[in-house]
């Protein structure tokens, strides 16, 4: 049995208000047209999407007009939570919510328990072998809430 200090630490780490990052690397040819591909598991509690970073390799993303991250199972709020013109994700692009306004997003998006995130192209499939690294920052609204990259 873990000692009291470890048990308290574990409770604080996943307490409401704590934040965490997830990372996912996708290949351009894996982007489907208006059909979401799983980006995360279902949230185990309510979490807020509060930050993001996108970085592409030298090939970047090719194909659709816009790259989108959507909520699967969303009942309230926006369905598309992040969107960016693919032209902004080519050849070593680096975007984040603190220094770039290129991504259209809502200030605070809540992913409710049972919902998950997916990615898609808005009007065409992705092509080529370019890579996009996606980091998403979440803040827990409910204790022990979690969401993981898949």
Task: Report on this structure.
7% of the residues lie in helices and 39% in strands. The protein has 150 residues and is mainly β. The protein has one domain: Sandwich (Jelly Rolls), CATH 2.60.120. Strands 1, 3, 6, 8 and 10 form a five-stranded antiparallel sheet that branches. A five-stranded antiparallel sheet has the order 2-9-4-5-7, with no helix packed on it. Strand 4 and strand 5 (80-85) form a beta hairpin. The longest helix has 10 residues, at 4-13. The chain is elongated. The model has no long low-confidence stretch (mean pLDDT 88).
Question: Secondary-structure map with pairings?
Answer:
Layout (H helix, E strand, L loop, with lengths): L3 H10 L5 E9 L9 E2 L8 E10 L9 E7 L7 E6 L8 E3 L7 E2 L3 E3 L4 E6 L9 E10 L10
Antiparallel strand pairs: 1-10, 2-9, 3-6, 3-8, 3-10, 4-5, 4-9, 5-7
């Amino acid at each position: 049995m873990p000692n009291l200090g470890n048990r308290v630490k574990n409770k604080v780490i996943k307490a409401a208000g704590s934040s965490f990052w997830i990372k996912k690397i996708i290949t351009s040819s894996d982007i489907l047209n208006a059909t979401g591909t799983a980006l995360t598991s279902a949230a185990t509690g309510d979490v807020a999407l509060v930050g993001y970073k996108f970085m592409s390799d030298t090939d970047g993303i090719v194909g659709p007009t816009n790259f989108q991250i959507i909520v699967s199972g969303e009942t309230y709020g926006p369905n598309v939570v992040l969107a960016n013109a693919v032209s902004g994700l080519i050849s070593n692009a680096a975007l984040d919510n603190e220094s770039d306004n290129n991504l259209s997003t809502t200030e605070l998006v809540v992913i409710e328990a049972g919902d998950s995130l997916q990615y898609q192209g808005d009007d065409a499939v992705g092509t080529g072998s370019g890579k996009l690294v996606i980091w998403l920052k979440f803040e827990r609204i409910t204790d022990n809430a979690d969401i993981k990259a898949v």
